[in-house]
Amino acid sequence: MSQLLSWAVALFVLVAALNPTPSFAQDAEPEASPAGTLPPEVAQPGFDVFRVSSGGSGRAYRVWEEWVPQVVNTPDGSAWVFFTAQAREDEGYGTRRLFASRFDPTLAIWSPAEAIGKETTQFGATAAVDSKGAIHLVYSERQMDTDEAWSQLVYQRLDGTDWSDPEAIAPHPDAGHQMLPSLAIGRDDDLHLIWRDQRLVSAEQRLALPTNADLFSSDLVDGKWSDPVQVKVREAADVNPAWPHLAIDGDRLVVVWSIYEGSTAEEMRSAARVEWSVRARGGGDWSAPQVLFRRESGDAGGRLIDLASDPTGGVVVVYGLYDKSVNQLYLQRLSPRAEAWSEPLLLTSGDYGYLPVAAIDPEGFVYIVFNSGRNRDVDIGGLKVAPDGSHEIAVSLTPGEGGITARASIALDHNGVPWVVYMHQPTGASNVTEIQGVRAARFTPPPAP
User: pLDDT exceeding 90 applies to what percent of the chain?
Assistant: First the structure.
């Protein structure tokens, strides 16, 4: 399967090395066999296939597999999906652009996805919706599709019918690669962002590896992004943070990130540990980082972890620990204003639970979507966890679909109904050629025979 990693040497090092397992479908270990059975298939509502428009014409497209599609719901029953893809033009495939599609709640259809922003390479989108239904979007853009070009973070807002022009969030001549943004919005529509860039490393380190970088945060105050604040001080030149996740816990922000030790591909295959920190929503310094867990063997951190705000209070982290073809999926809670996490709760163990993404409904139920299976046999799995930690077995959310379905994202609408979007690679295809989605996904296992 093509992994679409020929874009640039720098991005190859960043994504391939920092991704604890290959991002689209896990590669099997030759001496190991799949562990146990996969989740049962559950009949789902009809799925949507997202189309792309370029210059008013419908176009085939191929998806940039490294960057998960994003879905957000608005208070009026609408929704938006964002994904990076290349539209096939008459002269060949075009630039990797960020496409956006809106769900019309009156017609119950998705609009053709259209590229937004500038004619640049765009990726790594993160989005949030405020109480008035405005869409806030942050992503990385590169002016050129070469390894000599740096990426910078830009912000766009949709408040009505037109997107604002892309605005650089934290420009700096030494910022290097600005990537991996995570956006969170508070109850007063206050907007907060965390990302990674290279402004504090030497020019030699900046040119050597895009992974030589630090984490920074900024807040949108009176329509302007505040000066970046460093979240963690690097303890050594070859110890680097990556893949930050930001969430809101009442009057404070909570962030978790992965720490990588070393600079070789093997050393960066897995995080050595996962850390966390908190800060007041109103500003100030981040607390001294604490260790959430350390990797003892196998792969951990990176894309095997996600963080979500709990509307009932606190935050939830879900993560996988992958070793010898077995992935163990865990959940931990940080109660409101608590200084320590709950003990890890093992949710699943087997050849599934990879690359989890979580969302939490108003009653505190956690919905998790993930890759189920590896190699050429991958589906989207799902699991629903009650506030007390009880749960039924995991299920397959893409039953009977040909080809591969993987790399899912999830959001809950104003009624707490789950919407899931994911990538689809048809049977016989060498690339992901569709984004698909299912509204009102069903997480309840089938009745026992």
Answer: 78
